[in-house]
Design goal:
There is one protein chain. By secondary structure, the chain is α+β, with helices and mostly antiparallel strands. The chain contains 13 helices and 13 strands. The strands form 4 sheets. A 6-stranded antiparallel beta sheet has the order 5-6-7-8-10-9. The protein has a 3-stranded antiparallel beta sheet with strand order 11-12-13. A two-stranded antiparallel sheet has the order 1-2. Bound molecules: adenosine-5'-diphosphate and magnesium ion. The site of adenosine-5'-diphosphate has 19 residues, from β6, β8 and β10.
Protein backbone atom coordinates (compact mmCIF):
# COMPACT_ATOMS: atom_id res chain seq x y z
CA UNK A 1 0.00 0.00 0.00
CA UNK A 2 1.26 3.48 -0.88
CA UNK A 3 0.94 6.31 1.61
CA UNK A 4 1.53 10.00 1.40
CA UNK A 5 2.99 12.70 3.60
CA UNK A 6 3.91 16.33 2.99
CA UNK A 7 7.53 17.44 3.04
CA UNK A 8 8.30 18.87 6.49
CA UNK A 9 9.91 21.98 4.98
CA UNK A 10 7.11 24.61 5.32
CA UNK A 11 8.22 26.45 2.19
CA UNK A 12 8.19 23.26 0.08
CA UNK A 13 5.24 21.03 1.18
CA UNK A 14 5.85 18.63 -1.70
CA UNK A 15 3.64 15.50 -1.47
CA UNK A 16 5.87 12.47 -0.84
CA UNK A 17 4.55 9.00 -1.72
CA UNK A 18 6.08 6.00 0.03
CA UNK A 19 5.37 2.29 0.45
CA UNK A 20 3.85 1.20 3.79
CA UNK A 21 6.94 -0.98 4.49
CA UNK A 22 9.16 2.04 5.11
CA UNK A 23 6.69 3.75 7.50
CA UNK A 24 8.45 5.16 10.55
CA UNK A 25 11.69 5.81 8.66
CA UNK A 26 13.02 9.04 7.22
CA UNK A 27 12.56 10.11 3.59
CA UNK A 28 14.42 12.79 1.66
CA UNK A 29 12.31 15.23 -0.35
CA UNK A 30 13.36 15.02 -4.04
CA UNK A 31 12.48 18.72 -4.48
CA UNK A 32 14.21 20.48 -1.58
CA UNK A 33 16.28 17.68 -0.02
CA UNK A 34 14.71 18.09 3.45
CA UNK A 35 14.61 14.89 5.50
CA UNK A 36 11.03 14.20 6.57
CA UNK A 37 10.03 11.56 9.14
CA UNK A 38 7.37 9.22 7.83
CA UNK A 39 4.50 8.48 10.23
CA UNK A 40 4.95 5.24 12.18
CA UNK A 41 3.32 2.10 10.79
CA UNK A 42 -0.35 1.89 11.65
CA UNK A 43 -0.82 5.66 11.87
CA UNK A 44 -3.54 6.95 9.58
CA UNK A 45 -2.62 8.92 6.45
CA UNK A 46 -1.75 12.45 7.20
CA UNK A 47 -1.79 15.31 4.80
CA UNK A 48 0.37 17.41 7.08
CA UNK A 49 3.86 16.64 8.35
CA UNK A 50 4.12 13.57 10.62
CA UNK A 51 2.34 14.25 13.88
CA UNK A 52 1.19 12.35 16.93
CA UNK A 53 -1.02 14.05 19.52
CA UNK A 54 0.31 17.53 19.93
CA UNK A 55 3.80 16.60 18.79
CA UNK A 56 5.47 17.16 15.40
CA UNK A 57 7.95 14.42 14.65
CA UNK A 58 11.35 15.66 13.56
CA UNK A 59 13.40 12.49 12.96
CA UNK A 60 13.67 8.89 14.04
CA UNK A 61 16.25 8.40 16.80
CA UNK A 62 16.14 4.66 17.14
CA UNK A 63 14.14 1.56 17.64
CA UNK A 64 13.89 -0.78 20.61
CA UNK A 65 11.85 -3.67 21.86
CA UNK A 66 8.80 -1.50 22.62
CA UNK A 67 8.67 0.51 19.42
CA UNK A 68 10.25 3.50 17.76
CA UNK A 69 11.71 6.62 19.33
CA UNK A 70 11.47 9.99 17.55
CA UNK A 71 12.86 13.41 18.19
CA UNK A 72 9.75 15.61 18.29
CA UNK A 73 8.63 19.12 19.11
CA UNK A 74 5.76 19.71 21.52
CA UNK A 75 3.25 22.28 20.23
CA UNK A 76 2.78 25.38 22.33
CA UNK A 77 5.80 24.85 24.55
CA UNK A 78 8.05 24.42 21.52
CA UNK A 79 9.89 21.90 23.65
CA UNK A 80 12.21 19.33 22.09
CA UNK A 81 11.32 15.86 23.39
CA UNK A 82 12.01 12.21 22.71
CA UNK A 83 8.74 10.51 21.80
CA UNK A 84 8.48 6.77 22.22
CA UNK A 85 5.74 5.32 20.04
CA UNK A 86 4.75 1.87 21.17
CA UNK A 87 4.63 -0.84 18.50
CA UNK A 88 1.10 -1.69 17.21
CA UNK A 89 1.10 -4.97 19.16
CA UNK A 90 0.80 -2.91 22.37
CA UNK A 91 -2.35 -1.12 21.24
CA UNK A 92 -5.75 -2.56 22.01
CA UNK A 93 -7.37 -2.69 25.42
CA UNK A 94 -8.41 0.85 26.45
CA UNK A 95 -7.93 -0.22 30.07
CA UNK A 96 -4.23 -0.26 29.37
CA UNK A 97 -4.19 3.47 28.92
CA UNK A 98 -5.43 3.93 32.50
CA UNK A 99 -2.73 1.60 33.80
CA UNK A 100 -0.16 3.23 31.56
CA UNK A 101 -1.21 6.58 32.99
CA UNK A 102 -0.76 5.35 36.55
CA UNK A 103 2.71 3.99 35.79
CA UNK A 104 3.66 7.17 33.97
CA UNK A 105 2.56 9.23 36.97
CA UNK A 106 5.02 7.26 39.10
CA UNK A 107 7.77 7.80 36.54
CA UNK A 108 6.90 11.50 36.28
CA UNK A 109 7.23 11.87 40.07
CA UNK A 110 10.93 11.06 39.72
CA UNK A 111 13.03 14.13 39.31
CA UNK A 112 16.74 13.50 39.24
CA UNK A 113 19.78 14.53 37.24
CA UNK A 114 20.59 10.90 36.44
CA UNK A 115 17.08 9.85 35.34
CA UNK A 116 15.52 10.80 31.99
CA UNK A 117 12.47 12.87 32.94
CA UNK A 118 9.10 11.47 31.85
CA UNK A 119 6.72 14.18 30.58
CA UNK A 120 3.41 12.74 29.47
CA UNK A 121 1.68 9.82 27.85
CA UNK A 122 -1.01 9.79 25.21
CA UNK A 123 -2.81 7.84 22.57
CA UNK A 124 -3.49 9.06 19.05
CA UNK A 125 -4.80 7.12 16.08
CA UNK A 126 -4.75 4.01 18.27
CA UNK A 127 -1.05 4.39 19.04
CA UNK A 128 0.27 4.73 22.56
CA UNK A 129 3.17 7.10 23.01
CA UNK A 130 5.01 8.88 25.74
CA UNK A 131 7.19 11.91 25.72
CA UNK A 132 10.34 12.34 27.75
CA UNK A 133 13.41 14.49 28.14
CA UNK A 134 15.46 14.51 24.94
CA UNK A 135 19.03 13.40 25.56
CA UNK A 136 21.72 14.79 23.32
CA UNK A 137 24.20 11.94 23.55
CA UNK A 138 24.45 8.21 23.05
CA UNK A 139 23.56 4.99 24.86
CA UNK A 140 26.25 2.87 26.49
CA UNK A 141 25.23 0.20 23.97
CA UNK A 142 26.27 2.53 21.15
CA UNK A 143 29.45 3.29 23.07
CA UNK A 144 30.22 -0.44 23.29
CA UNK A 145 29.66 -0.62 19.54
CA UNK A 146 32.50 1.86 19.01
CA UNK A 147 34.81 0.79 21.79
CA UNK A 148 34.95 -2.78 23.09
CA UNK A 149 35.64 -1.70 26.69
CA UNK A 150 35.25 1.42 28.76
CA UNK A 151 38.31 2.47 30.85
CA UNK A 152 37.78 1.51 34.53
CA UNK A 153 37.83 5.11 35.87
CA UNK A 154 35.12 6.12 33.39
CA UNK A 155 33.10 3.01 34.20
CA UNK A 156 33.31 3.88 37.92
CA UNK A 157 32.04 7.39 37.22
CA UNK A 158 29.08 6.03 35.20
CA UNK A 159 28.34 3.39 37.82
CA UNK A 160 28.23 6.02 40.57
CA UNK A 161 25.86 8.17 38.50
CA UNK A 162 23.62 5.17 37.72
CA UNK A 163 23.51 4.16 41.39
CA UNK A 164 22.54 7.71 42.37
CA UNK A 165 19.67 7.63 39.89
CA UNK A 166 18.52 4.23 41.16
CA UNK A 167 18.79 5.42 44.78
CA UNK A 168 16.39 8.26 43.97
CA UNK A 169 13.98 5.89 42.21
CA UNK A 170 14.12 3.46 45.11
CA UNK A 171 13.25 6.25 47.55
CA UNK A 172 9.99 6.39 45.56
CA UNK A 173 9.69 2.57 45.55
CA UNK A 174 10.27 2.48 41.79
CA UNK A 175 12.36 -0.29 40.27
CA UNK A 176 13.51 -0.43 36.68
CA UNK A 177 13.55 -4.15 35.72
CA UNK A 178 15.32 -3.55 32.42
CA UNK A 179 18.71 -2.01 33.23
CA UNK A 180 21.04 -2.64 30.28
CA UNK A 181 23.58 -0.62 28.26
CA UNK A 182 20.79 0.49 25.86
CA UNK A 183 18.93 2.08 28.77
CA UNK A 184 21.85 4.10 30.08
CA UNK A 185 22.47 7.25 28.05
CA UNK A 186 25.45 9.59 28.35
CA UNK A 187 25.10 13.24 27.35
CA UNK A 188 27.79 15.14 25.45
CA UNK A 189 29.00 16.63 28.75
CA UNK A 190 29.34 13.16 30.27
CA UNK A 191 26.24 13.01 32.46
CA UNK A 192 24.69 9.58 32.64
CA UNK A 193 20.90 9.30 32.54
CA UNK A 194 18.78 6.21 33.12
CA UNK A 195 16.13 5.69 30.44
CA UNK A 196 12.72 4.00 30.66
CA UNK A 197 12.53 4.03 34.47
CA UNK A 198 9.11 3.00 35.74
CA UNK A 199 7.89 1.75 32.37
CA UNK A 200 9.15 -1.80 32.15
CA UNK A 201 6.59 -2.98 34.72
CA UNK A 202 3.77 -1.58 32.63
CA UNK A 203 5.11 -3.17 29.48
CA UNK A 204 5.50 -6.52 31.25
CA UNK A 205 1.87 -6.39 32.44
CA UNK A 206 0.60 -5.25 29.10
CA UNK A 207 2.15 -8.19 27.36
CA UNK A 208 1.42 -10.94 29.84
CA UNK A 209 0.59 -13.28 26.97
CA UNK A 210 3.68 -12.42 24.91
CA UNK A 211 6.80 -14.61 25.16
CA UNK A 212 9.37 -12.91 27.42
CA UNK A 213 12.26 -12.85 24.96
CA UNK A 214 10.23 -10.80 22.47
CA UNK A 215 9.67 -8.11 25.08
CA UNK A 216 13.03 -7.95 26.74
CA UNK A 217 15.28 -8.82 23.83
CA UNK A 218 18.27 -10.94 24.74
CA UNK A 219 18.43 -11.50 28.49
CA UNK A 220 22.16 -10.84 28.95
CA UNK A 221 21.63 -8.52 31.89
CA UNK A 222 18.61 -10.15 33.47
CA UNK A 223 18.82 -11.23 37.12
CA UNK A 224 18.39 -14.95 37.93
CA UNK A 225 15.20 -14.27 39.93
CA UNK A 226 13.73 -12.26 37.02
CA UNK A 227 14.75 -15.03 34.61
CA UNK A 228 12.84 -17.47 36.84
CA UNK A 229 9.86 -15.10 36.77
CA UNK A 230 9.92 -14.70 40.57
CA UNK A 231 8.95 -11.60 42.54
CA UNK A 232 11.64 -8.95 42.24
CA UNK A 233 12.77 -5.92 44.22
CA UNK A 234 15.49 -3.27 43.81
CA UNK A 235 18.15 -6.00 44.01
CA UNK A 236 17.19 -7.12 40.49
CA UNK A 237 18.28 -3.67 39.26
CA UNK A 238 21.51 -3.97 41.25
CA UNK A 239 22.21 -7.28 39.50
CA UNK A 240 21.44 -5.88 36.01
CA UNK A 241 23.57 -2.83 36.70
CA UNK A 242 26.41 -5.16 37.72
CA UNK A 243 25.99 -7.24 34.54
CA UNK A 244 26.00 -4.03 32.47
CA UNK A 245 29.24 -2.83 34.06
CA UNK A 246 30.76 -6.31 33.76
CA UNK A 247 30.23 -5.86 30.01
CA UNK A 248 31.68 -2.32 30.02
CA UNK A 249 34.80 -3.43 31.91
CA UNK A 250 35.51 -6.75 30.17
CA UNK A 251 34.02 -6.20 26.71
CA UNK A 252 31.93 -9.36 27.17
CA UNK A 253 28.50 -10.14 28.53
CA UNK A 254 28.61 -12.35 31.65
CA UNK A 255 26.51 -15.14 30.10
CA UNK A 256 26.04 -15.87 26.44
CA UNK A 257 23.97 -18.71 25.06
CA UNK A 258 23.12 -19.53 21.47
CA UNK A 259 19.51 -18.59 22.18
CA UNK A 260 17.73 -16.41 24.80
CA UNK A 261 16.64 -19.63 26.49
CA UNK A 262 20.20 -20.96 26.74
CA UNK A 263 21.35 -17.60 28.11
CA UNK A 264 18.64 -17.74 30.78
CA UNK A 265 19.74 -21.26 31.76
CA UNK A 266 23.35 -20.03 32.11
CA UNK A 267 22.25 -16.97 34.14
CA UNK A 268 20.51 -19.23 36.61
CA UNK A 269 23.02 -22.10 36.80
CA UNK A 270 26.56 -21.19 35.71
CA UNK A 271 29.31 -19.01 37.23
CA UNK A 272 30.64 -16.09 35.18
CA UNK A 273 34.32 -15.66 34.28
CA UNK A 274 35.98 -13.39 36.90
CA UNK A 275 36.41 -9.80 35.69
CA UNK A 276 40.16 -9.77 36.38
CA UNK A 277 40.65 -12.85 34.18
CA UNK A 278 39.21 -10.90 31.24
CA UNK A 279 40.68 -7.52 32.14
CA UNK A 280 43.50 -7.41 34.72
CA UNK A 281 43.58 -3.59 34.42
CA UNK A 282 40.45 -3.26 36.58
CA UNK A 283 41.33 -2.36 40.19
CA UNK A 284 40.64 -5.35 42.45
CA UNK A 285 38.17 -3.61 44.77
CA UNK A 286 36.19 -2.34 41.79
CA UNK A 287 36.02 -5.81 40.19
CA UNK A 288 34.95 -7.29 43.54
CA UNK A 289 32.16 -4.70 43.94
CA UNK A 290 30.77 -5.39 40.44
CA UNK A 291 30.93 -9.14 41.05
CA UNK A 292 29.11 -8.71 44.37
CA UNK A 293 26.37 -6.83 42.51
CA UNK A 294 26.00 -9.95 40.36
CA UNK A 295 25.74 -12.51 43.17
CA UNK A 296 23.22 -15.17 42.21
CA UNK A 297 21.46 -14.90 45.58
CA UNK A 298 19.88 -11.44 46.05
CA UNK A 299 20.76 -11.62 49.77
CA UNK A 300 24.47 -11.71 48.84
CA UNK A 301 24.33 -8.51 46.76
CA UNK A 302 24.36 -4.92 47.97
CA UNK A 303 20.88 -4.62 49.42
CA UNK A 304 20.08 -1.18 48.04
CA UNK A 305 21.71 1.54 45.89
CA UNK A 306 22.85 3.55 48.95
CA UNK A 307 24.90 0.60 50.28
CA UNK A 308 26.34 0.17 46.80
CA UNK A 309 27.29 3.87 46.74
CA UNK A 310 29.08 3.51 50.08
CA UNK A 311 31.14 0.65 48.66
CA UNK A 312 31.92 2.63 45.50
CA UNK A 313 33.15 5.44 47.73
CA UNK A 314 35.61 2.96 49.24
CA UNK A 315 36.61 1.74 45.75
CA UNK A 316 37.34 5.30 44.77
CA UNK A 317 39.30 6.03 47.95
CA UNK A 318 41.45 2.93 47.40
CA UNK A 319 41.91 3.52 43.67
CA UNK A 320 45.51 2.59 42.78
CA UNK A 321 47.60 5.50 41.58
CA UNK A 322 49.33 3.36 38.96
CA UNK A 323 48.11 0.87 36.42
CA UNK A 324 50.39 -2.06 37.20
CA UNK A 325 48.96 -4.91 35.22
CA UNK A 326 50.63 -4.28 31.88
CA UNK A 327 54.13 -3.06 31.13
CA UNK A 328 52.99 -0.64 28.44
CA UNK A 329 50.79 1.25 30.90
CA UNK A 330 53.16 1.00 33.85
CA UNK A 331 53.62 4.75 34.04
CA UNK A 332 50.06 5.75 33.38
CA UNK A 333 48.36 7.26 36.40
CA UNK A 334 44.76 6.21 36.80
CA UNK A 335 42.84 9.42 36.53
CA UNK A 336 40.07 9.58 39.10
CA UNK A 337 39.54 13.32 38.82
CA UNK A 338 36.28 12.74 36.98
CA UNK A 339 34.96 10.45 39.69
CA UNK A 340 32.84 12.63 41.95
CA UNK A 341 32.97 12.23 45.70
CA UNK A 342 30.16 9.80 46.30
CA UNK A 343 29.03 11.00 49.71
CA UNK A 344 28.27 14.45 48.26
CA UNK A 345 25.05 15.11 46.34
CA UNK A 346 25.39 15.07 42.55
CA UNK A 347 27.82 17.87 41.85
CA UNK A 348 27.28 19.20 38.33
CA UNK A 349 30.82 20.17 37.44
CA UNK A 350 32.63 17.42 39.34
CA UNK A 351 31.14 14.60 37.30
CA UNK A 352 32.76 15.52 34.01
CA UNK A 353 36.22 14.63 32.85
CA UNK A 354 38.68 17.09 31.39
CA UNK A 355 37.86 18.25 27.85
CA UNK A 356 40.97 16.49 26.58
CA UNK A 357 39.79 13.10 27.70
CA UNK A 358 36.29 13.73 26.46
CA UNK A 359 37.67 14.45 23.04
CA UNK A 360 39.29 11.04 22.99
CA UNK A 361 36.24 9.14 24.08
CA UNK A 362 33.35 10.50 21.95
CA UNK A 363 33.36 11.81 18.39
CA UNK A 364 30.85 14.54 19.14
CA UNK A 365 32.99 15.68 22.07
CA UNK A 366 35.94 15.75 19.71
CA UNK A 367 33.90 18.02 17.44
CA UNK A 368 32.87 20.25 20.36
CA UNK A 369 36.47 20.60 21.51
CA UNK A 370 37.64 21.31 17.95
CA UNK A 371 34.89 23.94 17.60
CA UNK A 372 36.02 25.61 20.84
CA UNK A 373 39.65 25.62 19.72
CA UNK A 374 38.58 27.13 16.38
CA UNK A 375 36.51 29.79 18.16
CA UNK A 376 39.45 30.64 20.42
CA UNK A 377 41.82 30.85 17.44
CA UNK A 378 39.40 33.09 15.51
CA UNK A 379 39.02 35.36 18.54
CA UNK A 380 42.81 35.57 18.95
CA UNK A 381 43.31 36.42 15.25
CA UNK A 382 40.59 39.09 15.47
CA UNK A 383 42.21 40.62 18.57
CA UNK A 384 45.62 40.50 16.84
CA UNK A 385 44.29 42.22 13.72
CA UNK A 386 42.55 44.87 15.83
CA UNK A 387 45.74 45.51 17.80
CA UNK A 388 47.78 45.77 14.57
CA UNK A 389 45.25 48.23 13.16
CA UNK A 390 45.43 50.45 16.26
CA UNK A 391 49.21 50.32 16.20
CA UNK A 392 49.14 51.41 12.57
CA UNK A 393 46.76 54.27 13.37
CA UNK A 394 48.98 55.38 16.26
CA UNK A 395 52.12 55.18 14.11
CA UNK A 396 50.54 57.11 11.22
CA UNK A 397 49.20 59.86 13.46
CA UNK A 398 52.54 60.02 15.29
CA UNK A 399 54.35 60.36 11.96
CA UNK A 400 51.91 63.08 10.85
CA UNK A 401 52.34 64.89 14.19
CA UNK A 402 56.12 64.76 13.75
CA UNK A 403 55.87 66.11 10.20
CA UNK A 404 53.65 69.03 11.15
CA UNK A 405 55.76 69.71 14.26
CA UNK A 406 58.97 69.70 12.22
CA UNK A 407 57.83 72.10 9.51
CA UNK A 408 57.11 75.10 11.77
CA UNK A 409 60.25 74.28 13.69
CA UNK A 410 62.31 74.44 10.48
CA UNK A 411 60.41 77.51 9.41
CA UNK A 412 61.09 79.09 12.77
CA UNK A 413 64.71 78.14 12.54
CA UNK A 414 65.01 79.80 9.13
CA UNK A 415 63.89 83.07 10.74
CA UNK A 416 66.47 82.90 13.43
CA UNK A 417 68.82 85.79 13.17
CA UNK A 418 72.24 84.66 12.13
CA UNK A 419 74.44 84.19 15.12
CA UNK A 420 76.82 87.04 15.63
CA UNK A 421 80.18 86.29 14.15
N1 LIG B 1 15.26 10.21 25.79
C1 LIG B 1 15.94 9.93 24.67
N2 LIG B 1 16.65 10.90 24.05
C2 LIG B 1 17.35 10.61 22.92
N3 LIG B 1 17.37 9.40 22.33
C3 LIG B 1 16.68 8.41 22.89
C4 LIG B 1 15.93 8.60 24.08
N4 LIG B 1 15.34 7.43 24.43
C5 LIG B 1 15.71 6.54 23.48
N5 LIG B 1 16.52 7.12 22.56
C6 LIG B 1 17.11 6.46 21.38
O1 LIG B 1 16.20 5.52 20.87
C7 LIG B 1 16.78 4.21 20.83
C8 LIG B 1 15.71 3.18 21.14
O2 LIG B 1 15.27 3.35 22.47
P1 LIG B 1 14.36 2.26 23.17
O3 LIG B 1 13.12 2.06 22.39
O4 LIG B 1 14.18 2.67 24.60
O5 LIG B 1 15.27 0.99 23.05
P2 LIG B 1 15.44 -0.23 24.06
O6 LIG B 1 14.18 -1.02 24.02
O7 LIG B 1 16.63 -0.97 23.54
O8 LIG B 1 15.67 0.37 25.43
C9 LIG B 1 17.90 4.28 21.87
O9 LIG B 1 18.89 3.36 21.56
C10 LIG B 1 18.37 5.70 21.75
O10 LIG B 1 19.31 5.82 20.70
MG1 LIG C 1 15.22 2.18 26.23
Amino acid sequence: MTRQVLCSNPSCRQALSYPEEIAGQNAQCPRCGTVTPLPPPGASDSSSAARLGHYSLVRKLGEGSMGQVFEAVQDGLNRRVALKVLAPRFAGDPLYLKRFQREAQTAAALNHRHIIAAYEIGVDQGRYFFSMEYVDGETLKARLGRQSRVPPHEALRYLVQSARGLAHAWEHQVIHRDIKPANLMVTWDDTLKIADLGLAKFIARMTESTPTDIIIGTPYYMSPEQARNEDVDIRTDIYSLGATFYHLLTGEVPFKGRSPFETIVKVTTEPFTPILTLNPQVPKTFAAAVEKMMARQPSERFQDPKTLLQELDRVRAEWPSRVSASGQAADARVDTTGVPPIAAPAAPAASGPSPGRRAKSHPWRQRAVERKILEKRTALIAIGLLAAFFLLVVLVSAARGLESAEIPALAERSHFPSPPR
